[in-house]
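Support case: calcium ion complex. Customer-provided input:
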Amino acid sequence: MKQFFSALLCISLLCLANLLPVTVYAAAPISFEILAERTHKPTLFTQGLLVDGDHFYESSGLYNQSLLVTYPIAEPAGTWAKISAPFTKKQPVPARYFAEVLALLGDKLYLLTWQEQTLLIYDKTTLNYQKSLSYKGEGWGLTTDGKQLIRSDGSDTLYFHTADDFTVTKTLKITDEGKAVAQLNELEFVEGFIWANIWHQDRILKIDPATGKVLGEMDLSGVKQKLQLNNSEQVLNGIAWDEKRNAFWITGKNWPKMFLLRIRP
Ligand SMILES: [Ca+2]
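Agent response - structure generated as follows:
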């Protein structure tokens, strides 16, 4: 009987946990419009996404299947041509690494690994491996302000690293109205601000890189609902600034689509 009541209590607590509200941010909502959508290979367990010129660069995670790919932003005509379009280039990542996000600085692509404490560096044009650097802690997100590399590790802290040897030069706590914002994941630095998505949330936050304060948030739950996903790990994860289109491309892990979003003034 005792076990029965213990089990009942556990079930009640689980139900209660489900009813509790998710973290509510105080930051002002940022409104946007969907300018376009395109196909995204659902085989990609998206960790990092960026735009360079007319191409996407994307990293895909998991052990034994991590890879780095590049493909044109413009799609061929016809549904089947879109679905079957080959990658422009594809570079498998050694099986012992779980690839995370990537950043582009100069002619180099910097790819973080999740728990392997290794930063892998590739040539942008050929996707050939060049060298690796080590760091302490986990790798979740990475972007650049044009000088330094900025890393997230799933906590509420961002780490600024030098690009040449990946030394930490400063850390920054991210807060929203004084409250810590944890689980920071994919990052994108755009025109003086850091944009970050939060793991398992349909939100992208706009962050002041000087103070770490959250300035606003984009709610992408409506965009994600359009996809009718059935796996809880198919989370939003991928923010790429498209300078030419003055808009963000966003996608997620194993999503079949990518969306082009423009912030409303
Ligand atoms: Ca990005």
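The mean pLDDT is 89.

Case will auto-close in a few days if no follow-up is received.
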